[in-house]
Amino acid sequence: xxxxxxxxxxxxxxxxxxxxxxxxxxxxxxxxxxxxxxxxxxxxxxxxxxxxxxxxxxxxxxxxxxxxxxxxxxxxxxxxxxxxxxxxxxxxxxxxxxxxxxxxxxxxxxxxxxxxxxxxxxxxxxxxxxxxxxxxxxx
Length: 139
Prior knowledge:
Layout: H1 3-21, E1 30-31, H2 34-40, E2 45-49, E3 55-59, E4 65-70, E5 84-92, E6 98-102, E7 109-113, E8 115-117, E9 123-125, E10 133-137
């Protein structure tokens, strides 16, 4: 078999394997652009679980501010109270990343991440991975 036929056969085999998975181009994760984020984010209610396992919630106000609440699993307290709240800011960077800054009492939090929309419509920080899921909801 010559190299052209082998190449064509390889392409056909790969297409057949991909088709058998049920994945289509429309099922691929899509990174939201800067313009999409700037239009979408204001007014959304955000739910996110931190790497430490704390459930946090806030609303992206149109002026770039929010007040975050957390069940504070990372620190908790000696009295058993685990709730925390703090002011914060959000923005969309020139590169199209969602950036937040939260002024928690014990430790400030600051990060930026691309937002990826998965095939099921869920949103993720950077890559489709359940540990990186973030929820945006319109009230």
